Amino acid sequence: MYAVFAVAIIAAYLLGSVPFAFLIAQAHGKDLRTIGSGNIGATNLARAVGRKWGYFCFALDVLKGLAPVAIVRAIGGVPDSPLLLSLWLLVGIAAILGHVFPVYLRFKGGKGVATSFGVALGLWPYFTVCALIALAVWIAVVLIWRYVSLASISAAVVFPIVLILGILTVPGWHSASLWPLVVAAIVIPILVIVRHRENIRRLAAGTESKMRSRTSPS
After folding, report:
1. Structural domain tally of the chain?
2. How far is the C-alpha of 202 from the C-alpha of 100, rounded, in Å?
């Protein structure tokens, strides 16, 4: 069992490292690292080559997170202990770290929002519910203020709060067995927020670019 998880963690990192935005931009004759924000993510890709490619890349980045955790659950079943739950989470975290620190691009990747969303969708039901609520917050912030970065940061902040409220109020969600989820729900958003530190500086200075039309998370 532990050997399966070890292989899954390595495979998840390598899959997460696949820089879809960079590859799509290259196919269009562009180096995404020299365009716009320089971020290797769906939002910057949408600015560089068009919204349809941004949406397509966003879907691929979500799948990078969703597929590893879904496959592990299909093979190993529902984790029934904090240890197995922790191993399951490590698979998802490996995919996120692959996206943020891709081995194929000298560990300089994207901000991890889409891949984190994919991981959360695959960790049913606890993270999935939180992810859908965080997505609703993301959409609301974009519609009101039109800052993709602010929406991503807001969704990251909301995510652990929703999980903790769920553990406190939902029957069957016991903190004694779900504590690995709480740790991950705090660590992953912190990583996402840290990756948005330049955006935070621009938001504070009033120089952050607003979304001109519908796009996807960075």
Report:
1. 1
2. 21
| Residue 211 belongs to a domain | no
Three-state secondary structure call for residue 40: coil
How far apart (Å, rounded) are the C-alpha atoms in residues 205 and 187? 27
Q: State how far the Cα of 4 lies from the Cα of 122, in Å rounded to an integer.
A: 18
pLDDT tens digits, 189-206:
999 999 999 999 999 999
Tokens describing residue 218 = 């960075």
Averaged pLDDT, 172-177: 83
A 10 A CB-CB count for 27 gives 10
Compute the C-alpha angle 147/183/178, nearest 5°: 120
Backbone φ and ψ of 40, nearest 5°: -90, 75
Domain hosting residue 7, numbered range: 2-205
Do 21 and 196 meet the contact criterion of CB atoms below 8 Å apart?
A: no
User: How many other CB atoms are there within 10 angstroms of residue 184's CB atom?
Assistant: 24
